[in-house]
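Protocol step 6 of 9: fold each sequence in the batch and record its structure tokens directly after the sequence line. For illustration, a two-sequence batch is reproduced in full.

Sequence one:
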Amino acid sequence: MCERLWVCALALWMCSTFTAGLAQSRLPAKIIEVADTLTLQEAHERYGIFAPRPPTASASATRDDRPNIIFIMVDDSRWDSYGVNGGPSWFKTPAIDRLALEGANFKNFFAVLPLCTPSRGTFFTGMYPHRHGATTNPEEIDCCFPWISEILQANGYYTVLSGKLGFDLDSLRGFDDYLVAITESYSPAKYLISTGNSVIKVVIGGHTTDIIKNYAVGRIISRPPGQPFFLFMAHRAPHVPYIPRPQEKDIFDTIPMPYPENANKYTKNFPSYYYPDNEAGDSIVQDSTYRGYFELLAGVEAVTGAFLKFLEDTAGILDQCLIMYTSDNGNLKSEHKLQGKQLPLEESIRLPMFIRYPKWFPEPVEVYDVMGINVDWAPTILDAAGIPNTYGMQGHSLRALYQGEVKRNAFLYEVWSEIEKDPIHPWLANETPAIRAVRTPYFKYIKSFCNSTTEQLFDLINDPKENVNLINDPYYQKVADYYRCLLDSIRQVYGDFYVDTILNCKLKNVDYSHVGASTDPGPIGPCIYIPADVDTSLNVGLGSIEARADCEVVVFTLGGQPVYRGWVAAATVSNVLQEQGRLPAGVYVARFCCGDHLQVRRIVLQ
């Protein structure tokens, strides 16, 4: 209870601190309902949606050399659908691939909660979902956290949203101009479009994928002169329903669709809620859905090519733009006979992440040794804009991670219980529990919050397809214990102190035989999670330092914030901290630098 009260108190403090000075743009009171179905051009001619914009109030009076920032997000796209990531040979993505081939391709990038609304909340706030409050579909971001659009707007950027918001429109913040899709339809669809003094609610003819691109182009053309812009281009594609543009309809009808080699159900050590609650359809169903998926994604490829051509040839600003391309989440498509996007398996959590920005990446690079997460999206944008991260964001700039300025050796995955009741067929109810997991480059440990112990452990090096759960393998019990501790530690770091309802589920067909890839999982170290901000790269000289008096100590919170620095003997640091009354009771990380010795330890203050 104390921890929960602390979290609430912190949120209230952040509400008054972080939003101070930010431009609070909301939907104006005047919304004009348009009865006719219009084209974008007709909407402009009638309501001036592309009227030239003068510099905004926050614009700099001097020349602004900061990059334009373009964030392209697709919906439900797997990381392995693109040519640069080993996509199908018949599915060509030269325009999207260009962003990676002329910049950086982050090969290990993940969503910490792979669902539409939580992922978008993480984009806007730079925080884990349990922190920003939007933990499922549909929920809203807590009011007190600033959005990246607000921060950029307050720091001189002209801000535009084109596409899917993912939240109630009353929560829209920080955008000078916007076109927001408010219906599930692809063609035609209804939008809210800003006009400067009012908002029109109107059905626009044509496919949403084209409308989103065309609106973005129009707003860039009419942007305030001399002012950098931020564009959030949020495609609905390739989300269901699979209704492609006419140009891509049926183009893959004669091509066999991908079907995973491991499209069989787990038979041992699997969570009981996997089947039938999250079970995929048969190969015929999968074949049909994949065709629609690729048809929609082909439309995104086409408009991305046209958009890049506009930036390069017409606007002449391509190299002055930081362009990020990603997805809100992945999607299981019959791997292990599972479907969906909330389970912590690789196909669900792994995302495409391409960045084209010549200032950061003058030569193309494939980044394998960095684990990026979607909590890093907003801090990366702050870094490019030259804005210090003083907003409580929990991620790091991908540039800083790539250059080794900070390191990440693990990340936390979270999902909250999903209970869907069918009033007509109650036996079809979907009951997926809350889940927490920790992933490192080597293993993934998953804990499901069932009323019976339900755990999974996958060896990602020897079993990257996650076919064998090692949690009961006798040779991996030290590894399992380590990862249990690591999960508890990383949850403390990020303030994830509670879960929702414990459901009735268990591990089925338990097997205790040795099925692992190795009889020697290797050495197991201390499981204290050290935040990326804490430099432990020189963790050498592990002899005793208890009696040494030449130790400079820096004490960090579990979130990486330094709270004490001084010259204290290691054996007495806890007493010194408590005597001086500097820190409240809790768990801290202390880094001791004693001559040529460096140690990192956990300190518990009672």
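Sequence two, same batch, same settings:
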Amino acid sequence: MKAKVLLSTAVIFAGALSAGTASAQHIFDGNIFWGNVDDCRGGSGSVACDHVAAFLNNDRGTDPGLADPIYQPGDFPIQDPDFRASAAGIANGVNDAAIKPSDLVQYFTGDDCFNCGTCDLDYLEDVCYRGALDPVSQEEWYAGWTNHNFDGTGRTDLDISNLIVVDSDIVGNETWTFGAGDGNGYLLRGRVGVPAGATLNIEAGVRIFGEKATTGYLVVERGGSLNISGTAAAPVIFTSDQLNGEQARQDWGGVVLHGRSIANCADCIGGASCESEGGAGDFCGNDDCDNKGTIRYARVEYAGIDIGENNELNAWTFNAVGCETVLEYLQSHMAWDDSFEWFGGKAQGKYWIATGGRDDNFDWQMGFRGALQFAIAQQYDDVGDSGIEADNNEFDFDAPCRSNPIIANFTFIGNNNGGSGIRLRRGTDAQVVNGILVNWDSSGGLRIDDAETLARGLNPAPAINECIATNVDDFEIESGLTVQTWPNPVVDKASFQFQLPKAGNASLTVFDANGRLVDTVVEGNLSAGQHSIDWNAPAAAGTYYYQLRTEDGQMTGRLVSVE
């Protein structure tokens, strides 16, 4: 669902900008498709599948070995999902190729929009895995501070008695503390603003309740700041004021941040403004570096509400938020409209999780050019749309300052009941790498619509993160069995390096993309320890798969041969 944004009859940008001048193109590489009814589909023929096939490091039909990611109806009222991939599988960069997210920076700045320049270079991490979680360390960064309860049944962390009512704008520098004045939290009554010049600081463990009767919600205006200092042990919780067991989507409004970054819904550079959905206020400007504050370990529950057709409040809304804003460890749970939505801007985030949303999990439009790394989306079986729904400008598909974010290292779990894993449309560009797309239905793991979305084509394949060049001991899995190959891609000769935890019979074989045996590299009784064997690649360029089998297990990986 898209918010209604007011536009002039013609959007004119200051400077020598014109529609259709963007140099950026799509990259869609290093992504894993598994368990989808249809991996790729588009309103423009087979173009989505063309995008998947255009890059050598996308995988279709190989199980990444996620532990327990899919919602089952019997899990309610409480569920404890596990999104970790197998260390022995293709999500591990030692076993298969991962893309270097930092290599994408050169593509997503574009030439049709002013850019901040100082926030583009050092935020993305070049990790040696695909998906939102490291399959080697198995660290669950979402554990402990997130909520997965459907309606609040059995919860003991909320007390709606003796709340401090907030029904007017913040003045000056205000701090909300846990247990302030013997209160159990703060109640947002109607629209509560943080205006220009004001700062709201929220300490760890604070509970903020949106009043259902008045559609309470929080808006941080242009020039206002929000600092949330949650921790994994004591996150800041924005939630419903309804009784436990009666909490539901659209109980209250959500959190809205208005920034002074650039959006393409108005002549923001020239001083005009865009109008936010839900009557939340105005946003945008000419400062992509705009800083709204530091927000860590915070979750928004049971939020979002329909004000009218195409006019909704989301759980988290980032309107033209700039790239110096810190947005890390955020959850949206049981949102009515979108879980996270960007309207323009250049915001950057890490460690975001969307669970149980009714509409899209991550949604962008109006010239969003930021970045998100380490993201999870999990749909429940009752409702849900796309993992990502992405537009440039719904009124002008070729509007300059074109949407073109980087999305890296994500795990999106569908419900096979509607929506696409990723839907690119209405002229957006995107750089999407190192993702896992599981359980999406016939709308497609990837869907691409509209000619304007396709007009700029594809970028050359980005650099591969050379995980295989690292000492094998750094990636040793629990069983002690490891295998890697170098170089990858290979021109004529590769070297297989593998570690056996104990002596015994072992075989290393290579298959083509159709599963036909190409070569048996080694077979026999091998000693424990590290082995290195050179192998002559086939003359035919293409994708090949290798498999190391021992008495204790097996590992597989992919090798790309190029001319």
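Proceed to step 7 once all outputs are recorded. Observation for sequence two: The first helix runs from residue 47 to 54.
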